Amino acid sequence: MEALLEHFITQSAMYSLVAIALVAFFESLALVGLILPGTVMMAALGALIGSGEVNFWHAWLAGIVGCLLGDWLSFWLGWRFKKPLHRWSFLKKHKGLLDKTEHALHEHSLFTILVGRFVGPTRPLVPMVAGMLDLPIRKFLPPNIIGCLLWPPFYFLPGILAGAAIDIPADMQSSSFKWLLLLTAIVLWLACWLCWRLWRAGKSGSDRLTAYLPRQRLLWLAPGTMVIAIAAVVMLAKHPLMPIYLDILGKVIRGH
Questions:
Q1: Please, where are the H alpha helices in the chain?
Q2: Could you tell me the residue range of the domain that residue 190 belongs to?
Q3: CA-only gyration radius of the chain, Å
Q4: Where are the transmembrane segments (predicted)?
Q5: Residues whose CB falls within 8 Å of the CB of residue 232, separated by 6 or more in sequence, listed in order
Q6: Sorting pLDDT into bands at 50, 70 and 90, what band is 105?
């Protein structure tokens, strides 16, 4: 997929922006986002941004447009076809997720719409379910717009960090820094995920991972992993190549 995107970019910068808008659109579109590997594709696009092939601000704008169009179309589809959708066999197979989304929208509509944009399984469902529930547009639009503004750079970020690291000259013995950067990113993500599992351990039912990660184990595993992640961040910050890396990231953000 990244090779295909790079081919587009060599043809025209406009193609890359169209690709970003399309990925964001289909990742946000009702139900389609459940089967589309949008997270991987956004990270690949982020790597191209980090390497300087795509302008950060243009990519952000294209992502916002794709998100908004996908969410608004999903909301309209939910509102227009709410009765057939309730009878659709595909949705009946995901009834548990659908019921949880409906309950969350009833209880905390603003929070659910905003946070749901960043959670893979609910991202393509929340706007559609909001339409099915006849949620007033004045309640849907503000958190939806905020979420669509923040989502693209959030999902670009892993790729941007990786792409910027690739641009560090090899003659500067940068391999150790790149491995440390990768290790820090993985451990930090794992620590945040374990903390999230611990936070929701007593608030929701069990799933496939509960047997391996019960609350008692998470009580020491989550904070322990977070300590390791913080130590890795400190080591990374003190690395001699960090100023060069930050300078590359600054040029990416400034669009140079």
A1: 2-11, 13-28, 32-35, 38-50, 56-80, 82-87, 89-93, 95-107, 109-116, 126-132, 137-166, 175-200, 215-237, 242-254
A2: 168-255
A3: 20
A4: 12-36, 56-79, 145-165, 177-196, 217-237
A5: 180, 183, 184, 187, 188
A6: confident
Structure tokens at 141: 């639009």
Nearest to 35, CA basis, from 128, 123, 159:
123
**Do 31 and 95 sit in the same domain of this protein?**
yes
CB burial string 178-189: b at 16+ within 10 A, e below: bebbeebbebbe
What single letter denotes the amino acid at residue 106? H
The pair of three-digit structure tokens given for residue 12, joined into one six-digit string: 């025209």
Domain count across the chain: 2
The pLDDT tens digits for 149-206 are 999 998 899 889 988 888 887 777 788 898 999 899 999 989 998 998 888 776 666 6
Indicate whether 163 belongs to any domain: no
Domain boundary at 103, 129, 157, which? 157
What is the mean pLDDT of the segment spanning 4-33?
76
Q: Is the pLDDT of residue 6 over 60?
A: no
Helix axes 95-107 and 109-116, enclosed angle (nearest 10): 130
Contacts of 62 (CB under 8 A, 6+ apart): 17, 18, 20, 21, 24
Sign of CA dihedral 26, 27, 31, 37: positive
The predicted model scores a pTM of 0.81
More confident residue, 108 or 65: 65
Q: What torsion, rounded to 10 degrees, do the Cα atoms 175, 178, 182, 187 define? A: 90
